[in-house]
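Deliverable D4.2, example record:
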Amino acid sequence: MVNIDGKQIKLQIWDTAGQESFRSITRSYYRGAAGALLVYDITRRETFNHLTSWLEDARQHSSSNMVIMLIGNKSDLESRRDVKREEGEAFAREHGLIFMETSAKTACNVEEAFINTAKEIYRKIQQGLFDVHNEANGIKIGPQQSISTSVGPSASQRNSRDIGANSGCC
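Output generated by the structure prediction step:
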């Protein structure tokens, strides 16, 4: 669950690790998804080279409004980098995706990737691009609660640690 503008948003995560054996199952997940994280390993060019195929699959089997974030993972392994950050940024720009680099090992930008995707989904809800009364689009409205916390770390927490695209962590 993440909180955005005082609303609780539940995220479900399906990790197929890019394995072809999961492709037919993954297609059914896309049908009910409001968002997807498309992840490649910055140290393995072949994972980047397969992005087009996975993106085509996602777009073919999902709503045209589905939010897709492209994530270059393993940013902690800069010395083993095989895919330049600029290549990931260019791919994302070309295909209308949100882009971020993360490190699952150090947790750098991991939470932010989920939050940024959820924020974009919420923005599309506000624009009326998702019908919140139709659970087929992957959005289920739960009980309304008064929530006093906001998304992500407080200003003091943000100032005390490096996060985001402009930081040196990724």
